């Protein structure tokens, strides 16, 4: 199994975390962005030229949430992606993160880290405000629960990697006690250590 990745990518970090949780053997290949990902052989795997891409015995799949679902279905027993109706709640939070929270996290990170001094700080300010609004929704959903769907799942993994971007970009959510508790708990899991080190290299 080979994972095409980049250390700064929170999308790729999600896949690393799940693979680590499951204890699966895999080869991580760091893609040289703006070079390797634009070559025909890479675009043949993923026409979007993005990371992550997973090659599992010549089965190629891209998009981080699709990869998380695939790995869970093939290698897990329902622990991280339940086989009962809880699966639909996991999907709900995966979709919410993809269309809402992660959009703001990416906007902030792209302008601050990728563009740097040329970044649009008005866009950053607006995204931080909306991110806090969305984190309030997450905080309410985490009330009385350790994880978003009761047990640790790929929804928590996805949400966590978005909140990592927010945290590294100085979005202060310490007043949201449930989010802070949840974030701190996941931050202690052995599976997240190496992926987080890669992301932190960007700051």
Automatic annotation (TrEMBL):
It holds the Pfam family GST_C. Residues 83-203 form the GST C-terminal domain. Coiled coil: none annotated. It comes from the Bacteria. One of its GO terms (molecular function) is transferase activity. The keyword Transferase applies. InterPro entries: Glutathione-S-Trfase_C-like, Glutathione-S-Trfase_C_sf, Glutathione_S-Trfase, Glutathione_S-Trfase_N, GST_C, Thioredoxin-like_sf. Residues 1-79 form the GST N-terminal domain. Keywords: Transferase. SUPFAM superfamilies: GST C-terminal domain-like, Thioredoxin-like. Belongs to the GST superfamily. This is Glutathione S-transferase family protein.
């Amino acid at each position: 199994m080979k994972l095409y990745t980049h250390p700064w990518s929170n999308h790729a970090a999600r896949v690393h975390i799940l693979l680590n949780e499951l204890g699966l053997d895999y080869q991580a290949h760091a893609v040289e962005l703006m070079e390797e990902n634009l070559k025909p052989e890479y675009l043949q795997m993923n026409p979007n030229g993005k990371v992550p891409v997973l090659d599992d015995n010549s089965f190629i799949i891209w998009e981080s949430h699709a990869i998380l679902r695939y790995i869970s279905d093939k290698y897990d027993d329902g622990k991280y992606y339940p086989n009962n109706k809880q699966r639909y709640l996991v999907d709900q939070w995966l979709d919410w993160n993809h269309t809402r929270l992660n959009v703001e996290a990416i906007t902030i990170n792209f302008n601050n880290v990728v563009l740097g001094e040329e970044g649009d700080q008005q866009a950053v300010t607006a995204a931080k405000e909306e991110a806090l609004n969305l984190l309030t929704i997450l905080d309410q959903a985490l009330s009385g629960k350790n994880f978003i769907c009761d047990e640790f799942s790929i929804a928590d993994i996805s949400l966590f990697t978005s909140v990592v971007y927010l945290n590294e970009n100085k979005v202060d959510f310490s007043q949201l006690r449930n989010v802070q508790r949840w974030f701190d708990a996941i931050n202690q899991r052995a599976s997240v250590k190496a992926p987080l080190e890669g992301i932190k290299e960007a700051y």
